[in-house]
Specification:
Helix content: 10-25%
CATH architecture: Roll
Largest sheet: 10 strands, antiparallel
Strand content: 25-35%
CATH topology: Thiol Ester Dehydrase, Chain A
Radius of gyration: 18 Å
Number of helices: 6
Length: 261
């Protein structure tokens, strides 16, 4: 692992928003005062992952990345991605002179939080998100995906479609752990704030998978309410695919104001 050498690269591409839900929906986002729907953070990350894979890094088996999102990227924007091998960091800039939209650090290997598929599940809770008694609650969903748009999606980020002769699912289509919060609590207007991802193995197009999450805390920042949880993505054969530490805003400060109005 220590012998891997990363390459410097900067590139410009148009970012596309394939998600129709919540803050990613143009109409919903504009009602909250934004310019349009956000490109999902996991889709932005997919561009970085694709570049590291292009460099020959065994990213889907050993990659580790930390992510921090500062400002939204909107669908159709021209965005600059850059990878710095010396500091092992990346950054994402828009073309509006407003500075960094997202940034992070990357490496391979590392210890990761343990999330077990054997944990006892909590039923969908009648409690409101943010209730301290929800800390430690275990959530799980089973998923399979329609591959119909995978080729179109992968072209945007240049994500490789095959590995070892098998078709890959683009990362942005399966790695978002907020599916658990949608399923258990019905929150759909969420904004990825920060997180870390440890990759363990690829996820292939012919595989179904599960997501198991444990709520670890709640916090508030500038009036935005944040949920924190750990998540394990596992293939149907029991193979660990990725472990995720995730923080998302589940209620925006401006959303709370608009509800009062």
């Amino acid at each position: 692992m220590g012998s891997i050498e990363f390459e410097a690269r900067e590139w410009v591409a148009e970012s596309r928003n394939f998600s129709p839900d919540g803050i990613h929906d143009d109409e919903r986002a504009r009602r909250l005062g934004f310019d349009g729907g956000f490109v999902p953070g996991v889709v932005l990350y997919e561009h970085i992952a694709a570049e590291l894979m292009r460099q020959g890094v065994p990213w889907l088996s050993e990659g580790r990345v930390s992510l921090r999102f500062r400002r939204p990227v909107y669908g159709g924007e021209s965005v600059t991605w850059s990878v710095d091998p010396e500091s092992k960091t990346f950054s994402i800039h828009g073309d509006d002179g407003m500075g960094v939209r997202a940034s992070g650090e990357f490496t391979v290997g590392d210890n990761f939080p343990q999330v077990s598929n054997d944990e006892a599940l909590a039923p969908p809770s009648p409690l409101q998100m943010g209730d301290p008694s929800l800390i430690g609650s275990v959530m799980r969903i089973e998923k399979s995906l329609d591959s119909g748009k995978f080729d179109e999606i992968a072209v945007i980020s240049d994500f490789p479609r095959e590995l070892d002769g098998r078709k890959l699912i683009p990362i942005g289509q399966w790695i978002n752990p907020m599916d658990l919060i949608y399923a258990y609590f019905g929150h759909t207007t969420t904004v990825h704030f920060a997180g870390r991802i440890w990759h363990h193995s690829p996820l292939f197009e012919d595989e179904s998978f599960s997501k198991t999450g444990i709520i670890t805390g709640f916090s508030e920042r500038r009036g935005n309410k944040i949920v924190e949880f750990n998540c394990l993505v596992a293939a149907a054969d029991g193979r660990s695919v990725a472990t995720i530490e995730h923080s998302s805003i589940y209620q925006l400060a401006r959303e709370r104001v608009s509800e009062k109005d």
